[in-house]
Structures are given as structure tokens and as C-alpha cells.
């Protein structure tokens, strides 16, 4: 059985996740948007009962390793054209151990199993090779470059778009 699982955020997680969010030295350059640190209590309140977004804690062997989130992206006005865009952030201590691969595979599996969406997508900086590799290992297919899509560190960054579709 995999040692990685996704589960709902509980109150006890909030100091851990808020602590990581405040610790700029631990933050990956790819997750640093120059915004004030995220309050996970606020986030919990925001996503509760909102079907267009979600957030789960990633656990490895019973320890909090990070989080995954998703939000609806509309590719047309009908419900069938709603896709999910996912994101992930793991604490540094958990990088490079296969956790990101498994967590993103589990999240895509869950979204296909629990919603009617035909597409789960993710994008990442063209320089974020670890995330590109993790997405590929999780069954996502590279689709192309989204030029100048993200502002971080004082400049626009190109992203690589990936997706898994229901038929994959
Ligand atoms: C990106 C992230 C989710 C990946 O999760 P992870 O658990 O570290 O990744 P995994 O261990 O599952 O897989 C990483 C793969 O990338 C490879 N890799 C890591 N660094 C690499 C690099 N600099 N160049 C090339 N490949 C690299 C690893 O070797 C591994 O591939 P392998 O199993 O074939 O050897 C995680 O590192 C993270 O949270 N980073 C900070 C936040 C972030 O970048 N989030 C995504 C923003 S879009």
C-alpha cells in the first residue's frame, strides 16, 4: 500500500501549514508569488461548500508533507466543458521521494471518480523540471508552452501545460 495519501484539512494542520507559508527561506522559487503568507484557516473557510475549488493535505507515512488544490476552469458554457486545474506544494523535507508524483496521480484519479470533468490539467514553470517529471510520471501529457503566463520574482515566466483526460 502507498505511504502517500490525501485527506481533508483539520484544525491541527493549520499551525504546520501556516508555519511553512511564513518561512520564506523554505519556500520554493516556483511557489513564491510575493504575496502575504496564506492563512489556512481563511482558506478552509473559503473552500468549504464551494464546488468550484478544493484543497487537501498530502500525508506521507502519517506526516503532513504539503497540500494539493484544484479549481474549475471553464472551456465552454456547459458543465461538460468544465476542467480542473490542480496545484501542489510540498515542504522541502519531502521533495524528491515520489510524494509529488503519487499525490498528483491520486488527485487526478479522485477528480475523475467524483466529478464529470473530462480533463485535469496542471501547468508549471518551464524551469521546474521536478514538477514536469512528477506530472509525467503521474500520467499527465505535455501539451505545450503558455508564454508569459505567470508573474514571479519581477518578471513574466513561461509555463508548460500538462493534462490527463478521462480517456487516457
Ligand atoms: C514539484 C514537486 C511537487 C514535485 O514533487 P516531488 O515529490 O519532489 O517529486 P517526485 O519525487 O515525485 O518526482 C520528481 C522527479 O523529478 C526529478 N527531478 C528532480 N529535480 C530535478 C531536476 N532539477 N532536473 C530534472 N529532474 C529532476 C526526480 O529525479 C524525479 O524523477 P525520477 O523519479 O524519474 O528520478 C515538489 O518538489 C514541490 O512541491 N516543489 C515546490 C513547489 C512546486 O514547485 N510546486 C509546483 C508548482 S507548479
Automatic annotation (TrEMBL):
Start and end of every N-acetyltransferase domain?
Answer: 4-168
One GO term of the cellular component aspect?
Answer: cytoplasm
Q: Respond yes or no to whether keyword Acetylation is given for this record.
A: no
Q: Per UniProt, what is one Pfam family of this protein?
A: Acetyltransf_3
Which Gene3D superfamilies does the record match to this protein? 3.40.630.30
GO molecular function term, any single one: protein N-terminal-serine acetyltransferase activity
Q: Do you know which InterPro entries this protein is assigned to?
A: Acyl_CoA_acyltransferase, GNAT_dom, Ribosomal_N-acetyltransferase
Show the SUPFAM superfamilies listed in the entry.
Acyl-CoA N-acyltransferases (Nat)
Superkingdom of the source species:
Bacteria
Q: Which UniProt keywords apply?
A: Transferase
Question: Under what name is this protein listed?
Answer: RimJ/RimL family protein N-acetyltransferase
State the organism of origin.
Motilibacter rhizosphaerae
Amino acid at each position: 500500500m502507498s505511504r502517500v495519501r490525501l485527506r481533508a484539512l483539520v484544525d491541527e494542520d493549520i499551525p504546520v501549514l501556516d508555519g511553512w507559508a511564513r518561512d520564506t527561506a523554505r519556500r520554493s522559487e516556483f511557489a513564491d508569488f510575493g504575496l502575504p503568507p496564506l492563512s489556512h484557516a481563511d482558506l478552509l473557510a473559503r473552500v468549504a461548500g464551494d464546488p468550484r475549488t478544493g484543497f487537501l493535505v498530502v500525508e506521507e507515512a502519517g506526516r503532513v508533507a504539503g497540500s494539493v488544490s484544484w479549481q474549475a476552469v471553464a472551456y465552454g458554457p456547459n458543465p461538460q466543458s468544465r476542467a480542473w486545474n490542480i496545484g501542489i506544494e510540498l515542504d522541502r523535507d519531502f521533495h524528491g521521494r515520489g510524494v509529488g508524483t503519487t499525490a498528483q496521480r491520486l488527485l487526478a484519479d479522485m477528480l475523475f471518480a467524483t466529478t464529470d470533468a473530462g480533463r485535469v490539467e496542471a501547468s508549471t514553470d518551464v524551469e521546474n523540471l521536478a514538477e514536469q517529471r512528477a506530472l509525467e510520471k503521474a500520467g499527465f501529457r505535455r501539451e505545450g508552452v503558455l508564454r508569459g503566463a505567470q508573474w514571479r520574482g519581477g518578471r513574466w515566466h513561461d509555463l508548460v501545460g500538462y493534462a490527463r483526460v478521462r480517456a487516457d
